Amino acid sequence: MAESANEPARADALKNREHILQVAHEAFTESGTTSLNAIAKRAGVGAGTLYRHFPTREDLILAVYRRDVQRLVDSVPDVLAAHAPLDAFRVWFHTLADYVRLKHGLGEALHTAAVQHAVNQTAAPVTAAVAILLRACEEDGSVRPGLDAADVLLLMGFLWRVPPGEEGKEQARRLMELAIAGLSPGH
User: Fold this and answer.
1) N or C: which end of the chain has fewer CB within 10 A?
2) How far apart are CA 58 and CA 125, in angstroms?
3) pLDDT in the model for residue 32
4) What residues are annotated to bind DNA (predicted)?
5) Closest by Cα among 67, 52, 58, 55 to 21
């Protein structure tokens, strides 16, 4: 009976945690220097609630980063269900690039928090997501077989290095097509 009494508390705690993560994501996107107290206030929770979930600023930053990366990784099946494999590849990489560009404040926070280890930990799930996209493209013949997902991820890194704005988006589109041509079965 003690478990059922704790279930609503756990559900509320999970809901609070998720809400705090969403608010922190937005706040860190705006500024990597947002304080924990400002995030708690913005989330409508007390500082104690925030600190129970995330004892340190670094804990919160890491949780936001991991959550965001996991959402990108988890989106692959939905993107593949909604698009032909090569279009899904395009959509997913553009979404990844948008995340990298939009996380400017979070990127600063991650850097100042010295959490390179956590960033390295997320490389494996992202590479696995790329492998799923490549496998689907390989199966329908839109890319050549045997491409290494880590190589393709590194190659596609140009997407988050183009300048912001319409010119950058157009450049990203052109570069994407050049990269895809290099991945095609004819090369």
Assistant:
1) N
2) 21
3) 73
4) 35-54
5) 67
What is the mean pLDDT, run by run of 10 residues, along the chain of 187 residues? 53 86 88 86 92 87 86 96 97 86 58 58 89 97 96 88 86 92 88
pLDDT at 3: 45
DSSP letter for each residue of 106-135: HHHHHHHTT-HHHHHHHHHHHHHHHHHHHH
Residue carrying structure tokens 């340190």: 56
Q: Which of 121, 109, 5 is nearest to 73 (CA)?
A: 121
pTM of the model: 0.76
| Residue that has been written with the tokens 């390989």 in this structure | 138
**Domains in the chain with CATH codes:** 1-55 (1.10.10.60), 56-187 (1.10.357.10)
Integer Cα distance of 35 and 105 in angstroms = 12
What are the respective helix, strand and coil percentages of the chain, to the nearest 5?
Answer: 80, 0, 20
Cα angle, residue 41 at apex, residues 109 and 62 outer, rounded to 5°: 30
Encoded tokens for 138? 């390989």
CB under 8 A, 24+ apart: contacts of 79-84: 80/132, 80/133, 80/136, 84/140, 84/142
